[in-house]
């Protein structure tokens, strides 16, 4: 069965919703290296965060890699 979900979650607000926390917590976790999200687009200061859905699912279930 093919999934219609994107392989990426593309904003801090969406990442926060998946984790059950605030966007500020997401930004703190990224700065601390605890969340493997990166800036999307042109990597500019105002670019949105994005994270692979699989990495977020692995993080939430305690799996590594």
Can you describe what's shown?
There is one protein chain. This protein is α+β, with helices and mostly antiparallel strands. It has one domain (8-61): Multidrug-efflux Transporter Regulator, Chain: A, Domain 2. It has helices spanning 12-19, 23-31, 53-61, and strands spanning 8-9, 38-39, 49-52. Strands 1-3-2 form a 3-stranded antiparallel sheet. The radius of gyration is 12 Å and the shape is globular. The model has no long low-confidence stretch (mean pLDDT 83).
Topology record:
Elements: E1 8-9, H1 12-19, H2 23-31, E2 38-39, E3 49-52, H3 53-61
Antiparallel strand pairs: 1-3, 2-3
Rg estimate, integer Å: 12 Å
Helix content: 40-55%
Largest sheet: 3 strands, antiparallel
Taken from the alpha-carbon principal axes, the silhouette is globular
CATH level 3 topology: Multidrug-efflux Transporter Regulator, Chain: A, Domain 2
What structural category do the secondary elements indicate? alpha+beta
Please tally the β strands and state the result: 3
Q: Report the top-level CATH class.
A: Mainly Alpha
- So, CATH architecture? Orthogonal Bundle
Q: Kindly estimate the percentage of residues that lie in beta strands according to DSSP.
A: 5-15%
- Numbering strands along the chain, what is their spatial order in the largest sheet? 1-3-2
In short:
By secondary structure, the protein is of the alpha+beta class. It has one domain: Multidrug-efflux Transporter Regulator, Chain: A, Domain 2.
